[in-house]
Design goal:
249 residues; six-stranded mixed β-sheet; four-stranded antiparallel β-sheet; 8 helices
Length: 249
């Protein structure tokens, strides 16, 4: 079942007298429980695509279907509600509120939505345990390492039980050890919680956690790589590297 779909999606920017096509008629879809990575060189349209999929920006043409809703037909308020109830976001720079504890940052989407957070204590405990922060839930962001802050951001993205998580370079500000831990958590949230994940990344190791990798160049999808679940991690990384080399040759 498709939880997110882009149909002939376009994004055009006007730079003075010049028109730049950041995305050109991209077709893209994600199935429930699927982990998709988006790769490509700088300027290929990766982040533009992610922002359009998440309703953070409006396309110049085409359509985004999210949870059965055509985003172009929704006003800003309705689009915000559809996005809030169906998408969790994980960003490169964490975007945590410095005055709130880890637990309060995790609960923030529910608070914004007017939910009684006392009713989700079991879910909160499970999420805090999943991301390994049971002993750090009362700490504020400046008392947490970068890896711990990204774990808080991931738990915050999952707390609303969204159908899909959009992650923009989630390991970009982390060392290799913390980056691996975050990717393990994303993979687990996909496998154990059934969330679909779409992740933009430059990191071949991070991309190797995905089920499918979509490669962009100059705003267009040039190819896709499906990774066999039976492959070891070194084999998966080798497959990604070989595909990139073929595209660059």
């Amino acid at each position: 079942m498709k939880v997110l779909e882009a149909i002939s999606l376009r994004k055009r920017y006007q730079l003075g007298k010049h028109t730049v096509d950041a995305l050109a008629a991209v077709d893209f879809s994600v199935e429930k429980g699927e982990f998709v990575a988006i790769m490509g060189p700088s300027g290929s349209g990766k982040s533009t695509l992610l922002h359009l999929l998440g309703g953070l920006d409006k396309p110049s043409g085409g359509e985004v279907m999210l949870a059965g809703n055509r985003l172009s037909l929704l006003n800003d308020n309705k689009a915000t509600l559809v996005r809030r109830h169906n998408i969790g976001f994980v960003f490169q720079f964490f975007n945590l509120l410095p005055t709130l504890t880890a637990e309060e940052n995790i609960l923030l989407p529910l608070i914004i939505d007017g939910k009684d957070t006392r009713r989700v204590r079991d879910r909160l405990a499970a999420l805090v345990s999943l991301v390994g922060l049971t002993d750090r839930r009362g700490h504020k962001p400046d008392q947490l390492s970068g890896g711990e802050q990204q774990r808080v951001a991931l738990a915050r993205a999952l707390v609303t039980e969204p159908a899909i998580v959009l992650a923009d370079e989630p390991t970009g500000n982390l060392d290799s050890k913390n980056g691996t831990a975050i990717m393990d958590l994303l993979r687990r949230s996909c496998d154990e919680l059934g969330q679909a994940i779409v992740m933009v990344t430059h990191d071949t190791r991070a991309a190797a956690y995905a089920d499918r990798i979509v490669f962009l160049r100059d705003g267009e999808v040039v190819t896709e790589l499906h990774l066999d679940a039976q492959l070891t991690m070194p084999q998966r990384i080798r497959s990604v590297v070989e595909q990139i080399e073929r595209l660059e040759s």
